Amino acid sequence: MQPLIDITLRLIMRGREKVFDSMIHPLAALIRFHELQVDAFTPVGSKLPQEALRLQQAMSPTLQQYYPRLFQRYGSTAVVPLRRGICTGCHVRHPAGASKLAEGVSQCQNCNRLVYDADEAFELCVG
Ligand SMILES: [Zn+2]
Q1: 43 C-alpha to center of ligand 1: Å?
Q2: What's this model's pTM, rounded to 2 decimal places?
Q3: CB–CB of 92/50 below 8 Å?
């Protein structure tokens, strides 16, 4: 028989997981999703592991639509941070007022990669 504390803890964790899923930021979801794709060398369109599916759902519909094409084209550099306003994929300046695909994510106007502000992403990761 399992100790009661384990069962209670598991229930709490399951509850948290649900809250976490609905609160996950599209940028955080995109970055983690991209990491999984790169790590697993998952071919676009193949069956995704459970975590990737959850992250994909947390990404905005626009990101879900754009990502596969860009991953196919650029692989690990499909999603890159901006450094001092410069796309680290193609090294062209990214206009500050560029329209966003999702909160914190826009598209490089030169190479079309998904770009994000590194400071913003850091804040999301550390809370
Ligand atoms: Zn670029």
Answers
A1: 23
A2: 0.75
A3: no
